[in-house]
Amino acid sequence: MKKTIISDMTEGIDSAGIALGGKILREGGLVAFPTETVYGLGGNALDAEAARKIYEAKGRPSDNPLIVHICTPEALEKITAEVPETAKRLADAFWPGPMTMIFRKSELVPESTTGGLDTVAVRFPDHPVALALIREAGGYVAAPSANTSGRPSPTLASHVWDDLRGRIDMIIDGGEVGIGIESTIVDLTGPEPVILRPGYITQEMLEKVVGRVSLDRALDSDDPAVRPKAPGMKYKHYAPKAPLYIVEGGQGAVQETIASLAEKAASEGKKVGVICTDESAENYRTGIVRSAGTRTDEATVAAHLYRILREMDALGADVIYAEAFDTAGIGMAVMNRLMKAAGHKVIHAGEEAQA
Ligand code: TXA
Ligand code: MG
Q1: Complete domains list, the chain, with CATH
Q2: Residue whose CA is closest, atom 18 of ligand 1?
């Protein structure tokens, strides 16, 4: 067991803490830090040994590549073989921000960082603590989400502590993150940009800047033979311990179905979790009822989803029912994560529920 140092930056940047974090990273250690999306587990991206330590700390398969975080536009040139014109336009529009782009990599980036691929994922995050830390570390920080592999990504420093204490050198606490789900990943290595993972930056937002942007086929297929281009998207992910069912259909039917499933499960002695919205919360009388946010702004749902999934674990839910969300805008990212958390178990409200 390592001693894990905690540095409190909830009230703002602490320069002594950044200096220490930067030193740990330069020397090959691991530092978890806040970004605008979720907490990241950082290691020096140009150090093959640091990448190996990240995989080990997370219990992550080493064929699942890491995102390299930068803090200046110039850094992009050094780690890529080629930056297409479309990528420059996307960078101008959305960096710093919650968008990751995939490029052909340069020699500088070791294959252990990219999971053996000849491409590299690059992100320029929009968070003062992240940017200060990356600068202090030398400019290139590999960072997956700072959770144990398979658990929901951390949106609070306490989530990182629960998963990784004793396995990493330092956690920087920046308070609750703003967005709450991981960055949009866009592949720029083909003839047209392809979204490999939906996020806060939506397809419509990308298309306004560069014209046609497509979606990786695996995103709207539950056929396991269709392999996602982002290796991490193939794993069952973001999963709570209890089985989770998504209930879809008209709002009234969804609420009635969840209420009756919850009562049935409770009558069998099960602890039931219900994930709903501000609009429906007071209609549920049974179980642990949590509103993730409001249907009028699904970014609020994105912000709270992972915290609620972790809470369901902590409270010992035996089964969880969640309302489905609209897939327009950020809703696509919300439903992508929720479907993965549920292992694609969907109940259609109105039909005979078999759960
Ligand atoms: O918002 C985020 O992106 C957060 C914060 C910490 O920046 N990071 C994050 O990293 O979500 P991670 O490792 O949990 O997810 C990275 C995803 C994985 O699905 C991985 O397979 C994919 O990016 N990826 C990384 N490099 C890739 C590459 N060269 N080609 C295709 N997919 C890649
Ligand atoms: Mg992750």
Answers
A1: 5-83+102-177 (3.90.870.10), 244-348 (3.40.50.11030)
A2: 232
